[in-house]
Amino acid sequence: MLIAAGVVLLLLVSAATAVLHRGLKALAAARGQAQRLSLAEGLLASAPMQPILIRGDHRIEMPARIADLFGLVQPPTDFDGLSAAGGGLDPRDAEQLLADVKTVQRSGGSFVRQVRPRGAARTLTLRGARAPMGTETTDVVIWVHDASEAQEEVERLAAEQAQVRDAFDALTGLIEAAPLPMWYRGPDLRLSMVNSAYVQAVEGADAADVVARGVELIEGSGQGGPLAGAAAARESNRPEVRVLPATIGGARRSMQLYDVPLPGGGVAGFAIDVEELEEARAREHRFAAAQRAMLDRLSAGVAQFGRDRSMIFCNQPFRRMFAMRGEWLTDRPEFDRVLERMREANRLPEVRDFPGWKAERRDWFTRTDAATEETWHLPGGVHIRVLAQMLPDGGLLLIFEDRTEEVQLASARDTLLRVRTATFDNLFEALGVFAADGRLQLWNNRFRALWEFEEEFLNGHPRVDAVAEKIAPKLRTPNRATLVTELVRSATSDRQQRSGRVALADGRHFAFAAVPLPDGNALFTMLDISDSRRAEQALRDRAAALEAANKVKTAFVANMSYELRTPLTSISGFAEMLQAGYAGALTEQADQYVAAILDSVSRLGVLIDEVLDLTQGERDMPLRRETVDLEEVARAAAAAVADSAAERDIDFATEIASSAGHLNGDVRRIRETMEHLLRHAINAAARGGRVLLHVDGTDEHARIIVSDDGDGMDEEAARHAFDRFAKPTTTRGVRALDLGLPLAKQFVEAHGGSISLVSEVGAGTLVKVELPR
Question: Is residue 516 within a helix (H) or strand (E), and if so which, with residue range?
């Protein structure tokens, strides 16, 4: 029993111990749960969102804190209490919230709604969902968050977002409408955005196409490529500006590229077409170079100073005028130093107060009035005209003109004017100068004395018609006075020179003329030609007498030629009879004498025929025109003189081209022309020399050329080679009257052709004939 009692007691103690252990454990758990519950209640109380529990029968369990948010004095127990008078929700908001709760109870979803309690400036965000486990399935929990501050921030951010969006849209529209290409590169420097001008410049389909294909505005790669500027701008974090060529619209253009780094790592860029600007700069440089080259060619010295009063340019005349060395000018000396150097070179006027004089010239840089002009009188009688002009950029332009020669010329001009006036007044010729309005301006003593004008009349500067009216009674034909008016008006208005003659009533004759002067006036001159008129009449009488004598001489020569033929024919006939043996057989020496007589008779007959031809003249010469074969005529003429050429051992050559052809003319005269030219060439050529006959032609003319390599003629002989009855010439010691060339000229001109001669002493002579077809 004791053992049993001990066992029971042990079991009781063990059970009590276990119960105590579980109790202590439960107490510890309860304490932990209480702590967690207290922590949860603390967190929930300090949480930004507070819950409202809505039962399935729409009863509400709401903390007092939330009731205060809704503007309620006491927490409501149902939905009707949410819209109580003096606070709570607007009835419509309460109805919508009830509808949201019912939707959650049916579907188990959630909702979010913002409400504004009546009479409160706060905004509440309501988030509804099914209640957690431990509640009924139809219970709904609504978490209430006071979003007033957040709403204000949202509204502020929304307003800022709207402003940013508007600004972005405006900027995007501006970039899109910009006439210059613009683009944006991402951090990888690839194109991310381009505007329409960029698309048009690269001839792309649209912006998306250009960005997708990565079409660059500038060709190339490396240091001169399109990415070099963007990379440099991103590295230096400063804008990069470059000028590179680009092909736009098929034309090569100079583009100024701007790459601007952005905070996000990207690079924005735009391009400005500066082709016209570059061309303008090039033109400006060329113009400046041309202007300076032109200034170097001026006789006046030119010096240009910048706004800092240093010399930036001077031409060569300036350096010579003021003895300036080039190496000294390269340092761009200041204005005062230049004046001092001029003074050292004795190229400035002698002044007592040089510093004050220099200060006055320094004021040229600040004057705003017109250009300053003054004259410097330098030692040695040198006169320099100085013109100072202030430039728009604040600089100064000085022009130095050496007027020494001009002053000397002005002095000489005054002297010449006095001499001219004295000469004008004492000329034998009568002179008068009429202005453009027809008034007499100047006259000399001869003009006044010739027409017996009164000084009072001339001093009134009468018009030309008044002068003509005054001189009319002194003319043999008074109405000829109007010619003076016409001549003066023609010289002043039409600027034409006219002249004429007039006879005075006293028998004198005058030659007059009206000459236009450079200043628009007219010079009227009258010269007494009475003596020359009488001499002219005497010469006319003499010329008429000489012409009559020439006709008598021509008739005498012609008659003598005909008379000479009669005894010449008898001599020829008797000589031929003696040669034929009618008077008996002749000795050998007598035969030679008879042959010589016949030869002389033949030559004399030819000479008489030539003289007769010359006396006829080209107009009186009868021509028997027919078709002439020039080749046949040329060969006949060559055959006629072949023996003479052979006797003198002449190398006689004949060239007849196929273009010689035919022409209409006198066969005999053309053959005689060739013979005369050939005989003249054979006589002129030395023994063993060379003579050439060449015949060719064109569609309009036939050409005959005869040349020899004889002694030739001097200039005087060549000039008179075709003169009739010229002085006899001497060829190789034989004196002869050469009528061949004058006859050839007469025959050629009778056919309407032309003949010319070219000769050079020691080289020979060439005669060319052209005959119309």
Answer: strand 509-516
Summarize pLDDT for 745-754 with one digit per residue, the tens.
888 888 899 9
Close Cβ partners of 108 (under 8 Å, ≥ 6 residues apart) = 130
State in Å, rounded, how far the first CA of the chain is from the last one: 189
Q: Is 650 exposed, middle or buried (0-12, 13-18, 19+ CB in 10 A)?
A: buried
At 492-517, the pLDDT tens digits run 888 888 888 888 888 788 888 888 88
Q: Residue 175 burial (CB < 10 Å; 0-12/13-18/19+)?
A: buried
- Contact between 322 and 301 (Cβ < 8 Å): yes
What amino acid occupies position 299? S
Comparing CA positions, the residue from 460, 434, 428 lying closest to residue 446 is 428
DSSP state of 762: T
Tokens 């052209």 map to which residue? 770
Rounded-to-integer distance, Cα 679 and Cα 338, Å: 87
Q: Which amino acid is at 773?
A: R
DSSP states of 128-141: EEE--BTB-TT-EE
Q: How many CB atoms are closer than 10 A to CB 126?
A: 20
Q: Report d(CA 115, CA 151) in Å as an integer.
A: 11
Residue 231 main-chain phi, psi, to 5 deg: -65, -40
Distance CA 203, CA 131 (A): 65
CB of 66 within 8 A of CB of 144?
yes
Separation between Cα atoms, residue 175 and residue 193, nearest integer Å: 11
d(CA 115, CA 96): 10
- CA angle in degrees (0–180, nearest 5) for 749-755-758: 160
**Considering only CA atoms, which of 615, 612, 603, 611 is closest in space to residue 571?**
603
Dist CA 468 CA 448 (whole Å): 13
pLDDT at 733: 43
Measured CA to CA, the distance from residue 219 to residue 208 in angstroms comes to 20
Q: Yes or no: say if 186 and 269 are a contact pair by the CB < 8 Å rule.
A: no
Mean pLDDT, residues 368-395: 83
Q: What is the pTM of this model?
A: 0.33
pLDDT-derived band of residue 588, with 50, 70 and 90 as boundaries?
A: confident
Cα–Cα distance list, 406 to 379, 402, 403, 607, 722 (Å): 17, 8, 5, 74, 58
E-strand spans in 412-488?
A: 430-434, 440-443
Answer yes or no: are the C-beta atoms of 658 and 697 closer than 8 Å: no
| pLDDT tens digits, one per residue of 119-177 | 777 788 888 888 776 566 778 888 888 777 666 677 778 788 888 888 877 877 778 77
**CA–CA distance from 190 to each of 98, 193, 235, 545 (Å)?**
56, 9, 16, 113
**Residue 401: left (phi > 0), alpha (psi -120 to 50), or beta?**
beta
Rounded CA-CA distance 79/639 in Å is: 158
**Alpha-carbon distance 230 to 241, whole Å?**
10
**Nearest residue to 747 (alpha-carbon basis) of 692, 693, 681, 666:** 666
Strand 651-656 and strand 690-697: pairing? parallel
428: number of Cβ within 10 Å:
8
Element (H, E) at 652: strand 651-656
| Among candidate residues 435, 458, 436, 460, the one with its CA nearest the CA of residue 447 | 458
Would you call 84 exposed, middle or buried from its count of C-beta atoms within 10 A (0-12, 13-18, 19+)?
middle
Q: What number is the average pLDDT over the span 72-94? A: 77
State how far Cα 675 lies from the chain centre. Answer: 65
By three-state DSSP, how is residue 470 classified?
helix
3-state secondary structure 710-744: CCCCCHHHHHCCCCCCCCCEEECCEEECCCHHHHH
∠ Cα 146 130 97 (to 5°): 50
